[in-house]
Amino acid sequence: MIPRLQIELPKALSTIVEERLRDAIVNAELSFGQALSEDAVGLSLGVSRTPMREALTRLEQQGLVVIVPKKGTFVFQPTLEDVEQLASFRLLLETSALERCMERAPAETRDDMTSALETMRVAREAGDTKAYARADTVFHESFVNHCGNVHLANAYRTISGRVAALRAHLSVPHSDQQDLSFGEHRSMIEAFENRDLTLLRQLLSQHILRAQAAYADALVEMQR
Amino acid sequence: MIPRLQIELPKALSTIVEERLRDAIVNAELSFGQALSEDAVGLSLGVSRTPMREALTRLEQQGLVVIVPKKGTFVFQPTLEDVEQLASFRLLLETSALERCMERAPAETRDDMTSALETMRVAREAGDTKAYARADTVFHESFVNHCGNVHLANAYRTISGRVAALRAHLSVPHSDQQDLSFGEHRSMIEAFENRDLTLLRQLLSQHILRAQAAYADALVEMQR
DNA sequence: ATCTTGGACACTGTATCCAAGATACAGAGC
DNA sequence: GCTCTGTATCTTGGATACAGTGTCCAAGAT
């Protein structure tokens, strides 16, 4: 018997392109509404249009781009309504996920949340806004991924990309918001450890709604 | 000023293929795990592999098929765990949707639910199991689509396809289950009209969990 | 009888080519 | 100056050709 060897399974070009574009969108390297011509992007990435199309098709299903027939593909453009509805839906999913985590995997969940919080702390002290936003995303995904329901986790992932894009595009560097946000995350971990579901719900709701308000403000500001 | 004319915008081949395959899967014309070779299916539908690939890519994102690199594409194959987790997640989404409907569009929601129930009644009397399953799907989508949150509705749509496939594959014709199911739907409408949220939640939970149990039974039966 | 190995086959992954719709802009007509 | 229209160009939509890889089966060796 041969011990299991690590094989580098060659990723398909289309998935590489998908991940690359996904990163670019959620890390705000591309702006909302920006055109993504299959030709141009394919040329710049050194791939032909076929894997480009496949990547764009998947990104469309994830809501990160919109494909307009015969016109082109564009980075999604959130509306105020989107920001609001995303927050509302996030709240539903994350609340349910936290409840499930508390029942089935409290220790692992707490550990992952704590380590994500630590990453946030480092990023904040380094003044790295993008890294902070990424760690914020990881924090929320950490407990969603422990909830034990793959369909819930999948649904969360599809909206998580857009939420992350909002964070990266609209969060203000070094703001009081960031301090507030950090404190809220820490409080959530505490409440989770104390198994205080009522408080946890309240904190989560407060956290998400405050973030939503900030994004909404930034969005209006951006549109002016 | 010209009155708005209806123009038939020609659907892309890939979307036609997608819808056709989607129908085939959720109406149990294709069995779980069945291979869908791009060549073979493309030939039988009279399209080339390019739109085939695009359609399959989208269906994969919806969880209706799985694409195994270098091997092929196959109709998704639900496990017992899937059935359970789908039910659990459905319950979360539908409960939330019903609450939102009651607040923002009770009249339209009730009308759509009622008309879907009528379709179910007709199908039941005609003994058309597939039509009954389809109407069942429409019933549940009717209130989800009135909940006012597009992201919730989208998430529901992605799991709805798989739930519908379970229904079509695993529901038993003319069974007591069907009578039970019909009655439960009617009771739900009543509770909705009376704005009795507590009862409605209980009915929905009961309805979904009973269906889950039936699908689980049919699935093990099928695997033997 | 069982294990190994070679090769044929089938499938996907990618590139290239052609067709058709959408848009922008320039020029003609008023 | 304004409007309409024709055309040039850019975009996607689809078809086809080719290369790479995994799978299966059968033949040979142990």
Written account of the structure:
- The structure is a homodimer of 224-residue chains.
- The first copy, chain A, is built from nine helices and two strands.
- In chain A, a hairpin with a 3-residue loop joins strand 1 and strand 2.
- Chain A has two domains: 63 residues, Orthogonal Bundle (Arc Repressor Mutant, subunit A), CATH 1.10.10; 144 residues, Four Helix Bundle (Hemerythrin (Met), subunit A) (Up-down Bundle).
- By secondary structure, chain A is mainly alpha-helical.
- In chain A, strands 1-2 form a two-stranded antiparallel ribbon.
- At the A-B interface, helix 3, helix 4 and helix 7 of A face helix 3, helix 4 and helix 7 of B.
- Chain B binds a DNA duplex (30 and 30 nucleotides) through helix 3.
- Chains A, B: InterPro entries: GntR_C (IPR011711), TF_FadR/GntR_C (IPR008920), Tscrpt_reg_HTH_GntR (IPR000524), WH-like_DNA-bd_sf (IPR036388), WH_DNA-bd_sf (IPR036390).
- Chains A, B: Keywords: DNA-binding, Transcription, Transcription regulation.
